[in-house]
Design the sequence.
């Protein structure tokens, strides 16, 4: 042991969490969903997943080369973006459209605003919404192999009865990663146990959404309806993996709760009264845009300071 | 350079209303879904702009300063009404496509901007050339945006299919509102890159100087001005 005392400036206590470590946890947590997606939809899903990851990582590398910045592809965030984007795409999507989505996610939504930590909107969801508007027909074509019918949410909108057990396991039509609620929850529990995410945002999101559909859904308090609404569409994937994105969600504790409430209400509004059956991705990117305002009104009071309005008492 | 040619160069490149002054954004974003619409909008604005500059410059010593704005609006509105009737008579298709944006030329800030900052202070002939330059600059800007949006969003140029739909899926977002913002942003960025490259080479492109009267407080372009006086 050295006799020297090392004197250094703060911080003296460092957490072992780094960006790349957290991103690695997220990738691990997404594995069950990814594997189930490939099992469910076959090799087309695998090709799409590899294509979006490759296009995200490559466009981050190329962009940073062009603007002479240090390459940040080792922080794995581009891999997470690519994987999340693929999980949000229907398995029938043409590969070149998925690659275009990956480029849009990284170059326009993330790098143009300054890279990881500066983007105001979740890159994967930004790209999904871009593709949804750009290729509306391809993005809503879920017919593949044994799944020829509508997605469960669209079926419910048409007044059909859906099998909630199938929806829990994931044997339904939908995007690659959204169908299996169980696989998503396994990943989410892993993230919660590792301390990567906490339950404030997902919890308030789900509770608000359930309250909203019980009041306005027209079915009252019906377990089947509530379970189907929760497991259908991208709600589970969105609430645990995209609404909790560190960069685009509020950092204040009360802000997280307000953010969750916003998400729940917006998702309910889009699903019940919108033009499409699904609205999770639009709800999340819209709430992403509200984050600066949410943080401004929920900033915690520093110890010893008085509220501004009370100063003159 | 001849001062008339200088006015044309000024409008098309140096102070291009779309890419440099960022004026007239409402029609720029709204009607450029195709090259034809962009060209039509640009040319009809050019016609109004030239005649508005002509009349305002001719009347500049008669119009009292206190009511100059209402006077300009009356002149511009009369011209726009004439252009609208002419378009409805001879190009009814285009008139239908451009719709409400033709009457809205009345409040196009390029026209009032040129009236206020140039035509009201300069003789008739330079004012006409200023109008032609600015109008062509606007037309070039709108047509560029229109061409790019039409190719990406429909695979067409001026209505002719150039990308076969057999293998090309139109990226429909480009003929919708978000596409207008994306294309405009990329074109302005490209313009700024060219500007920076020319600066670095030591051959800077002319920047908008804008100052004609030396009166910064009442200048319509003081936000863009690079040679502003200390306030």
Sequence:
């Amino acid at each position: 042991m050295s006799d020297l005392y090392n004197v250094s400036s703060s911080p003296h206590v460092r957490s072992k969490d780094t960006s790349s470590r957290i991103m690695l946890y997220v990738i691990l947590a997404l594995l069950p969903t990814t594997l189930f997606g490939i099992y469910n939809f076959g090799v087309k899903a695998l090709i799409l997943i590899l294509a979006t990851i490759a296009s995200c990582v490559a466009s981050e590398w190329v962009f940073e080369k062009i603007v002479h910045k240090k390459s940040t592809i080792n922080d794995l965030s581009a891999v997470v973006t690519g994987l999340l984007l693929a999980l949000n795409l229907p398995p029938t999507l043409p590969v070149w459209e998925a690659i275009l989505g990956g480029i849009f996610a990284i170059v326009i939504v993330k790098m143009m605003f300054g890279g990881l930590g500066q983007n105001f909107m979740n890159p994967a969801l930004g790209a999904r919404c871009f593709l949804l508007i750009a290729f509306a027909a391809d993005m809503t074509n879920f017919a593949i192999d044994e799944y020829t019918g509508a997605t469960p949410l669209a079926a419910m909108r048409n007044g059909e009865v859906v099998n909630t057990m199938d929806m829990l396991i994931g044997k339904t039509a939908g995007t690659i990663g959204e169908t299996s609620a169980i696989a998503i929850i396994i990943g989410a529990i892993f993230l919660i146990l590792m301390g990567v995410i906490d339950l404030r945002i997902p919890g308030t999101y789900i509770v608000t959404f359930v309250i909203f559909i019980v009041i306005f859904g027209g079915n009252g308090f019906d377990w089947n309806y509530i379970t189907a609404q929760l497991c259908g569409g991208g709600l589970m994937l969105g609430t645990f993996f995209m609404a909790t994105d560190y960069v685009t969600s509020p950092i204040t504790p009360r802000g997280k709760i307000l953010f969750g409430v916003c998400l729940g209400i917006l998702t309910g509004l889009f699903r019940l009264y919108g033009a499409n059956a699904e609205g999770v991705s639009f709800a999340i990117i819209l709430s992403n845009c509200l984050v600066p305002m949410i943080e401004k009104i929920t900033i915690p009071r520093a110890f010893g300071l008085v509220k501004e309005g009370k100063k003159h008492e | 350079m001849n001062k008339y040619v200088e006015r044309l160069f000024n409008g098309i490149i140096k102070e291009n209303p779309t890419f440099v002054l960022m004026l007239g954004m409402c029609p720029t974003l709204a009607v450029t879904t195709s090259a034809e619409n962009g060209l039509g909008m640009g040319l009809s604005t050019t016609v109004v702009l030239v005649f508005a500059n002509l009349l305002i410059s001719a009347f500049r010593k008669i119009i009292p300063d206190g009511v100059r704005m209402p006077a300009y609006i009356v002149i511009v509105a009369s011209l726009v009404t004439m252009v609208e009737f002419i378009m409805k008579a001879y190009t009814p298709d285009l008139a239908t496509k451009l719709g409400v944006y033709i009457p809205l030329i009345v409040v196009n800030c390029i026209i009032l901007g040129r009236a206020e900052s140039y035509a009201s202070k300069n003789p008739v002939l330079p004012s006409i050339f200023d109008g032609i330059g600015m109008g062509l600059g606007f037309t070039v800007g709108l047509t560029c945006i229109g061409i790019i949006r039409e190719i990406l969003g429909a695979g067409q140029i001026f209505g002719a299919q150039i990308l076969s739909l057999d293998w090309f899926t139109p990226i429909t977002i480009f003929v919708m509102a978000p596409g207008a913002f994306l294309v405009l942003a990329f074109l302005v960025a490209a313009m700024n890159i060219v500007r920076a490259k020319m600066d670095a080479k030591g051959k800077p492109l002319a920047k908008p100087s804008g100052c004609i009267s030396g009166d910064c407080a009442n200048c319509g372009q003081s936000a863009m001005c690079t040679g502003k006086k200390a306030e």
Chain A has 14 helices and no strands. The mean pLDDT of chain A is 88.
